[in-house]
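Example 3.2
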Amino acid sequence: MMLWRHWWRLASQLHGACSRTRTFLWMVICMAGMTIRVELLGVTSLVRALGLKPACYDRMLDFFHSPALNIQKLTLAWRKLVFKHHPGILRIGGRPVLVGDGIKVAKSGRKMPAVKKLHQQSESNTKPEYIFGHSCQAVAVLAQALFSVVAIPLTCRIHEGVVFSNRDRRTLLDKMIALVDSLDISESFYFVADAYYASGKIVRGLLDKGNQLVTRVKRNAVAYWPAPAQGALRHRGRPKTYGKKIKVVSLLKDQSAMTEAASPIYGEKNVVLQFRTADLLWRPVGILVRFVAVIHPQRGSILLMSTDQNLSPLQIIQIYGLRFKIEVSFKQALRVVGAYAYHFWMAAMTPLRRKSGNQHLHRKPANYRDGVRRKIAAYHRHIQLGLIAQGLLQILSATVPQLVWSSFGSWLRTIRPGLAPSELVVAISLRNTLPEFLADTADAENLKKFMQKNIDPARAEGFRLIS
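Structure, written as tokens:
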């Protein structure tokens, strides 16, 4: 019961994103359903998880499509809540560390806007090379929970599949910068991403707001040594900026110039790696950036880059070593919370062909384009609420771990002391204590009345919650 009180006190701070109290109550019910459900079969699984009446299915569909929930206000309220209430926001040199990446979610609906044929650049043999689905980009913030580090999701949007204007020339890089800026973070931060985001657009977009990039660069990357200083006798024309060209991968060749140090990578002990640092001019932005060539005894070699020359090489390695945490966050969002388990179809939509790419809508009628925007907004509401539900599980794991374990009431083979409970453990604990929370009258009276009014006691799930 106490666990739900903590959950409610956090969730109630998102009220400002809703134009009405009734909208807020439906939002909280949807997040609670995402938290405790045991299967991920769309909105129907939310109805089953909470034992709601059949009429609630249509009400939930109306809620996800309603403009009464402002998605931008909700995102800003969630970002503010995370930075205020999570006790362990990870900071390097006083700056928080944000992680960005893309995720491709399979969708088979032929009447789902923004669905397109996508290529999966993954080395996993469990994934097909091509899928039909939604292409999203997400941003998370790293945080410490006991001895664990987690990536708390802040926002995610669908960034491919639909083009409303033939004048729109924005790339995924432009949309990622816009997504980061939409969070309106008042302090400067480090943004960590993979080699796809090692681009002049990303660097300029971050530097304009006083932020810095830490990323991997491809092995064919080139840079330049600064031009040597001119002597007293100057030649005509502008002084040279760029000196000798260098392939960044050549920093790996001379191992005698490398330094050995204990690995700062998360989770590694008794591992010694080699690294070499060089501050070089990078032509896409025309400034000095710090390159770090690293040789790991088990993982091989890698080339890293940071726009902040004040970071030490080991700090750059440490920061980039935490980038994989967003991959773990994606796994939890997909398999535990079901943030991407939506199936909203658009009845009036022209069916897609299986090999279709982007849907260009500039020749479509205005009401058709508005229908597509409404449907994509519904996808974004579902995704954002799923990410918030996941983030609330992570905050509870970091702030009240003992209360989580005392409410768990089950068994795990891999319980390790010192590590915070996973999202699955917190979800099970909340599922076990929901009946006690509804029976108590101390907190969240409006929410309890609203839920009890919509629970169907004739169903097994509903009977369990109100008995």
